[in-house]
Amino acid sequence: MSRLTAIQQQVRREFLQQVQDGRLDKPVAEASGLPNLAYTCPDFFALEQQTVFRNNWVFAGFMHQFGKAGDMQPVEVAGQPVVLVLAEDHSIRAFHNVCRHRGAQLVTEPRNSKKFICPNHAWSYSLSGQLIARPHFHGGEQHDVNALDCHRADLVEVRCVTWHDWIFVNLGGEADDFADCIAAITRQLDGYDLNALVFSESMEFDINANWKLPIENFIEPYHVFSCHPWLNDFVGMDERKAPSFDEKVLLCGYEFQQADPARGGALPWFPNLPVEKQNRGDWFVLFPNFAFEIFPDQVDVFIAWPQGALKCRETIALYFIGDAATAEKYRAAREHVVNNWHDLNREDIGIIERMQNGRCSEGFDGGVLSPYWDPVQQHFAKLVTESIDAPVI
Questions:
Q1: At residue 2, does pLDDT exceed 60?
Q2: Could you tell me whether strands 80-86 and 71-77 are parallel, antiparallel, or unpaired per DSSP bridges?
Q3: 42-50 vs 375-389: helix axis angle to the nearest 10?
Q4: Which of 128, 143, 203, 352 is 20 to 30 A from 9 via CA?
Q5: Any idea of the CA torsion for 354, 359, 365, 368, to the nearest 10 degrees?
């Protein structure tokens, strides 16, 4: 049965009619991107939650935030409350964050506990989601404890995987196997020992723009010469290649002639890094909103968290090699990297918010695309459209 409301169904029909003009199927030079509706309409944003974010693997949290069994983190995925927990076997599990009795949210802030306990009627659940006890369930002092026939009252589990320090969930449960989804990325990571990475710190930015614009901007190097003076000096436009794509992965990269303290310079490198990786930077997007860059000395994760049709929050999480992530002797080098990312992102935010404002104009509706730089933008638009058009399970 469809989970879409009548309004969402209407918006989906309107959106699909708008993209039937061939904008996504024509050669890129004759095509355009998503219509303005996809960036401005609250009802379309609600539709995305039920389709794009429910039916794909979506980033939900960081493994480094979980230290011991019973650590719990409430998160929101596809507009729904979910709780991540480090189980007794030290695996991360995810559950819908509601009691099975009256639907009270179980966990509202990070905490550690040996079990889930509902604040409403004290129903309790194990870290594996099994019902433990229901006090006074059959009347005063008539407790229902460890009932073997009550598994329908267990917490509802959400499909969950961890990849290095990154936790992903799939609410709909029907997404392809995660390893298959990231295969285009893992092929490019051969030679990097990601086990050497240690989380260092993160930055948060509130952006007055739809979540799709930071992701589209992240994968697109065309704006570097006009928006990022330092980055253009680091690698000029004549040294840059167009982004590419492989199913639900968007990818791009470059070779740099000389390392900089901000990238591949003053910090330790990945151990035994192959020669062909020693002067490279590569970046990736896993649809819909998880992205990262990798250099000889660091990995930088970008998350665009949807906050509404016109707002998102961006997290940039920085990882370095071994003790370079925390040791005092590398403090100045880390700060140089952090400041560089902060400056680059501030340069991007101004442009992203201008693009959002432009989505309110009748003079723009999808854009005129560059046949060299923008095939990836057309592909991203197709991924959004395919998710919107897919059956809602």
A1: no
A2: antiparallel
A3: 80
A4: 352
A5: 10
For residue 196, give every residue at least 6 positions away whose Cβ sits within 8 Å of its Cβ, in sequence order, or none: 270, 271, 321, 322
Take residue 257 and report the two structure tokens written for it: 């002639």
Q: What is the predicted pLDDT for the residue at 1? A: 39
- Tell me the two tokens of residue 34: 């998503």
pLDDT tens column, 255-274: 999 989 999 788 999 999 99
Element (H, E) at 380: helix 375-389
- Cα gap 62→174, rounded to integer Å: 23
The structure's pTM equals 0.95
**CB proximity list for 132: less than 8 A, separation 6 or greater:** 115, 124, 125, 126, 145, 146
Q: pLDDT, tens digit, for every residue of 315-363?
A: 999 999 999 999 999 999 999 999 999 999 999 999 999 999 999 999 9
Instruction: Please tell me the CATH code under which domain 178-387 is placed.
Output: 3.90.380.10
Pull the structure tokens for residue 332. 């100045």
Q: In what order do the strands lie in the sheet with 116-117?
A: 116-117, 124-125, 131-134, 144-145
Torsion of CA 199, 202, 208, 210, to 10 degrees: 0
Determine the longest span between alpha carbons in the chain, in angstroms: 77
What CATH fold (topology level) applies to the domain 58-170? Answer: Rieske Iron-sulfur Protein (2.102.10)
